[in-house]
Amino acid sequence: MSKKTVVIVASALAVLAGAGGVAFRYWRSVAPPAHAEQPSALVEVGAITVRLADRGEQNEHYLKATPVLEVCCGRGDKVSHDLVYVRDRFVVDAGLYTSQDLMSASGVGKLKSMLAGDLNQRFGGAVKGVLFNELVVE
User: Fold this and answer.
1) pLDDT tens for each residue of 55-95
2) Number of neighbouring beta carbons within 10 Å of residue 1
3) How is the chain split into domains, by residue range?
4) Cα separation of 63 and 48, whole Å?
5) Percent over 90 (pLDDT), the chain
6) Which of 1.10.260.40, 3.30.479.30, 3.90.1170.50, 3.40.30.10 would CATH assign to domain 36-137?
7) Whole-number Cα distances in Å, 104 to 69, 101, 125
8) How far apart are CA 40 and CA 59, in angstroms?
9) Among 4, 49, 113, 116, which residue is least crowded by beta carbons within 10 Å?
10) DSSP string covering 22-75, please?
């Protein structure tokens, strides 16, 4: 081989190695975090009845709900073992709403966001979402 051919082959190998390094760094930076690979767990909280904030009217209003938490990071067991706290947060948070608030999708969405935020303070961001198997306002 001539010197020119050796230089061309060496240059090509250097370019390929550099491109491989750049690709590796790119894919590593966009890879999901390790906890994202773990599947979410659904934790059933059980049926809860809450007196709503419609006090002072002729009839009091109640919310009956069956919340389910979507939990990530392999913390489903931790949340399941602390359901007393979860149920308490639900009673306190839902009790701040009136029946009119919870008659709209936006009101239910606000309740879900509030619950998820409060529960994430306790469980270190493990609660991905709050779902409802049942939600009845009376």
Assistant:
1) 776 788 999 999 999 999 889 999 999 999 999 999 999 99
2) 7
3) 3-31, 36-137
4) 8
5) 62
6) 3.30.479.30
7) 21, 6, 27
8) 40
9) 4
10) HHHHHHHHHSPPGGGGSPPEEEE---EEEE-S-TTSSS--EEEEEEEEEE-TT-
DSSP 138: -
Is beta strand 41-44 parallel, antiparallel or unpaired with respect to 48-51?
Answer: unpaired
DSSP letter at 101 equals: G
| Of the candidates 58, 68, 86, 66, the residue with the CA atom closest to the CA atom of residue 128 | 68
- List CB contacts of 72: < 8 A, sequence separation 6 or more: 35, 36, 38, 40, 41, 126, 128
72 with 126: CB under 8 angstroms? yes
Question: Which one is predicted more confidently, 33 or 26?
Answer: 26
